[in-house]
Specification:
The chain is built from five helices and five strands; from the N terminus they run H-H-H-E-E-H-E-H-E-E. About 45% of the residues lie in helices and about 20% in strands. The protein is elongated and about 90 Å long. Strand 1 and strand 2 form a beta hairpin.
């Protein structure tokens, strides 16, 4: 009496096309499942990096509904809420820049250095962190600095309400 494997093998050989299509469908289904899981993992990792870049170590971010931002009194009111241990106001906008290696538009963030450093830990490649007295100091990303030929100690021009103003790259 033949074994079950040899009976199954003989049946599969007699139905070659059906066997091939079945194996192909299983392989294709497995490939689609693996691709879906890989894509989901990549998207989740990308969202986590974007969230970390946006909010850092903050538990809560309060955004203004218009570009005018919050009044200082609103920031003080948030700071006075029981349980709030740190408030780090910031302003985000796009401005025109002029640097040694080019010019164009760039996204900038205006921050208070001390509280912001506790929320957004920066990895400095060169230079130093911003200090409270750095009214015209900027930190730039390493890739942006390389693309525009600037480094710590150089100057970049940023358009402000008063026109093109020089800013010192501190890091």
């Amino acid at each position: 009496m033949p074994g079950l494997f040899s009976i199954a093998y003989a049946d599969l050989r007699t139905r070659g096309l059906v066997t091939f299509l079945t194996v192909a469908a299983i392989a294709l289904g497995t490939a689609v499942a693996v691709a879906a899981f890989t894509t989901n993992a990549a998207v989740e990792a990308s969202l986590a990096r974007a969230a970390q870049a946006r909010v850092g170590n903050a538990d809560l971010v309060v955004d203004a509904v218009d570009e005018g931002g919050f009044a200082t009194s609103a920031v003080d009111a948030v700071r006075a809420i029981p349980g709030v241990s740190l408030v780090a106001p910031e302003v985000r906008t796009r401005v025109f820049y002029q640097a040694k290696g080019g010019r164009g538009f760039v996204a900038v963030r205006g921050i208070h250095p001390a509280p912001d450093a506790r929320i957004h830990p920066y990895h400095l490649v060169a230079g130093r962190s911003l200090d409270a007295g750095d009214a015209h100091g900027v930190l730039v990303g390493a890739s942006w600095a390389a693309a525009n030929g600037v480094g710590a100690g150089d100057r970049v021009g940023l358009v402000t309400a008063d026109g093109l103003a020089p800013f010192d790259v501190v890091g």
